[in-house]
Every structure is written in C-alpha cells, then in structure tokens.
Amino acid sequence: MKASSNRATDGLRISGMTTTLESPPDVAAIHAEIDAWADAIRHKDVNNALSHFAPQSVRFFMGPPLETDSPLKDNLENWFRTFDGELGYEVRGLTITASGDLAYSHSFNHLCGTKTDGQQADVWFRETLCFRKIGGQWRIVHAHESVPFYMDGTQRAALDLQPPSLG
Description:
single chain; alpha/beta; Nuclear Transport Factor 2, Chain: A; seven-stranded mixed sheet
C-alpha cells in the first residue's frame, strides 16, 4: 500500500509525537532540530543539513557501506544529485527522550522523489538519531537508518511496508 501522495510539495508532516519529558525545553529544541534538518533534506540544502550534525558523527545510512566514513558534505551532495527536484519527507511516530546533555529520537520516515533516471523513490524506513548538547545547541552525533528484510531466505529488503496508523 502506497502513501496517499508522494509529491515533494506536500511538505514535511510530523505526526504521532510522544516524548519522555526530562526537560521540556530540551525536547522542544530537539524537535525543532529534527524539523529543520528534515526541511533541509526536503530542499536538498546541503549546508543547512550539515548544520544539524556535530563535527564528528557516526552515520549508518541505508546505502553502503555499513558505516560511512566519507565526509558528510560529500555524502549529502552525492545523494542529492541522484534526485530531480525536491524530496518528499515525512516523519511519523516521532519519540524524543532527553536527559542532561544527551538525547535520542526514533521515528518511521517516508522518503519519496524522482530519481535522475526517472525512477520513483518511495520508501518507509526506521531512523534513530542520537544528540549531544554542544555549546548550548543540540547536534546529531549518530544517525541510524534501516529497513527490515524478509527472513524467508530471499534476504529481500521489505520496501513495501508502511508503519502502523498512529492516530
């Protein structure tokens, strides 16, 4: 079952947010970071996307390798070049937990757009982000994206899944 729309112009939708409130202002600040980072992804704005990451971060993106060691700027520029126009991006079921100078979030994210070869990208994936407060600002220090795979012997990525309805 496909999402009702995959147009990039639909904008960012964040739904079903829950939080563990150790510090409500910190949770709100992290939510704002996620909003702004996702908007940068939608607009393929490399510099804005970079601004939400710590100078040193660990990144497990969906594409190979298992852990990227390439500079984040290069990674983003190369990935964004594979799409024509803006990207559709939805964050669903966002949960944020913050305590002290560390926090994490997890969500189901939907990415869609038109690849430069004309193919339509349309995938739901799981994302966990870890944050550290650096110089008074919350920055992403670890990003982990994944899709499940069918454990039926085929090892096919389960790209046809969608998250449960979150109200």
